[in-house]
Design a protein that fits this description.
Number of helices: 11
Largest sheet: 2 strands, antiparallel
Shape: elongated
Structural class: mainly alpha
Number of strands: 2
């Protein structure tokens, strides 16, 4: 059997995620994978036959226990995410008011939506990094996030303040674009601790991580474009 057959990708992924959850370093994970590969190649046994369940075997290895559960978003990351989320919601509201020729209102629902989405975003980050992650649970959480924001906007429609559309739009765009621009200026920091397997080139993994780090901050601005377009269409037709 080939090395990929001896250590199936699913077994390997579960093994890596469990060790990462325990705060093992990239070098430790790579060494542990290399030992599994070497043993399986010599014995001609699959990883499941030789070591059993990947998660249980990873938990049995003598690495120091994790002091945290999953990956926590730093305060700076939450602050930048909150600014972009606020900018996205404010930009959509301002664009709708500008298209309809009225001064947009900032509602209680809009104010509640931002911390609500922030909390859900932190929960989603934890779920993605968890070794026993569930795709269905993640999808359900994402759906709940959109439903909660929509419900807050509809139910809490009390006006907090009315602002002219132009300055509100400028403020929304500034909040939306400042975090990704800041990340672009900084160059998008990539974790030096790169997880690689026996068949992975660490430099390739590091380049992929760098590309992802550069693109991720622009997800919310990209999502804002079709949302604003839809708001403009609705406002114009209305």
């Amino acid at each position: 059997m080939t090395a990929q057959q001896l250590v199936p990708r699913q077994w390997r992924d579960d093994f890596i995620l469990t060790l990462r959850h325990r705060d093992a370093t990239g070098a430790q994970i790579g060494d542990a994978l290399a030992q599994v590969e070497s043993y399986c190649a010599e014995s001609n046994e699959t990883a499941g036959e030789a070591f059993g369940d990947a998660r249980e075997y990873a938990q049995s290895l003598p690495f120091p226990p994790s002091t945290e559960s999953g990956t926590n978003m730093s305060r700076a990351q939450l602050l930048r995410l909150g600014a972009s989320l606020a900018g996205m919601l404010v930009t959509i509201t301002a664009a709708s008011g500008w298209a309809s020729g009225t001064n947009p209102s900032l509602t209680l629902g809009l104010a509640v939506s931002i911390p609500l989405v922030l909390g859900l975003a932190a929960a989603i980050v934890r779920m993605v990094d968890a070794p026993h992650r569930s795709t269905w649970r993640l999808a359900a959480t994402l759906m709940a996030a959109f439903a909660a924001v929509g419900a807050a906007q509809i139910a809490l429609d009390q006006t907090l303040v009315t602002v002219p559309a132009a300055p509100l739009l400028a403020a929304g765009l500034a909040l939306l674009l400042t975090p990704p621009c800041w990340e672009a200026i900084r160059g998008g920091r990539v974790e030096p601790d790169v997880i690689t397997g026996p068949f992975d080139d660490p430099e390739d993994v590091r380049r992929r991580n760098a590309r992802a780090a550069a693109l991720i901050p622009w997800i919310l601005p990209a999502m804002t474009v079709p949302a604003v377009a839809m708001a403009l269409v609705v406002a114009t037709l209305g």
